[in-house]
Amino acid sequence: MKPLEDVFLVVDVQNDFMPGGALAVAHGDEVVPVINRVARAFSHVVLTQDWHPRTHVSFAANHAARQPFDTTTLPYGEQVLWPTHCVQDTEGAALHRDLHVPHARLVIRKGHHEQVDSYSAFLEADRTTPTGLAGYLRDVGAKRVWAAGLATDYCVAWSALDARALGFEVSMIEDACRAIDLNGSLERAWQEMQAAGIARVQSEDVLKEANRETT
């Protein structure tokens, strides 16, 4: 991987998305060793964290007579209502203890604005408020984003699609992600990513490419 051009984006590998967590992604813990292995091929790694206030608008508990996974309409559009998760400064919001990426250069915390959700690492759900990641990547000369983490069909897909729309080349590392798959959301996400020109790759493909570039 080219140190300045290739960035490994690791999305929301947090306790609340792990088995037993508040918003568990099935087999979410399986991505951790894959991400650790892939991360060693990159000199430039960026992490994200969901980082919500307890009063966040996306939490079902903050809407009368609503249940998790109901939908509602907010000023910026349709919103899935989630179980309370990744609350700021709680153990659930912490990165998984076995995630080992000591050379990560940046952590983007998203979803901290009370009245708007933020799946993407680049733009909040109102689709206008930036997180600052796009400007950072342009400043450092990044050209390609390799995405992994949780969940494939929400935060990882939204991040990948936004990165592509912003002009970056994007690859989704499929076996370094796991999905929620709510009402067909996984298939829809893959269709949207394919239509956007996002490559669907496996971790072994990434490692083989890294090996070619170093030999």
From TrEMBL:
Q: Which GO terms describe its molecular function?
A: metal ion binding; nicotinamidase activity
Q: Which InterPro entries match?
A: Isochorismatase-like_dom (IPR000868), Isochorismatase-like_sf (IPR036380), Isochorismatase_Nicotinamidase (IPR052347)
Its name, as the record gives it, is Nicotinamidase
The record's annotation in SUPFAM superfamilies points to:
Isochorismatase-like hydrolases (SSF52499)
Keyword list (alphabetical) reads:
Hydrolase, Metal-binding, Pyridine nucleotide biosynthesis
The top EC class is: hydrolase
Family designation = Belongs to the isochorismatase family.
**UniProt-listed GO biological process terms:** pyridine nucleotide biosynthetic process
Q: Does the keyword Metal-binding apply?
A: yes
* Pathway this chain belongs to: Cofactor biosynthesis; nicotinate biosynthesis; nicotinate from nicotinamide: step 1/1
Domain Isochorismatase-like residue range list:
7-198
Documented EC number(s): 3.5.1.19
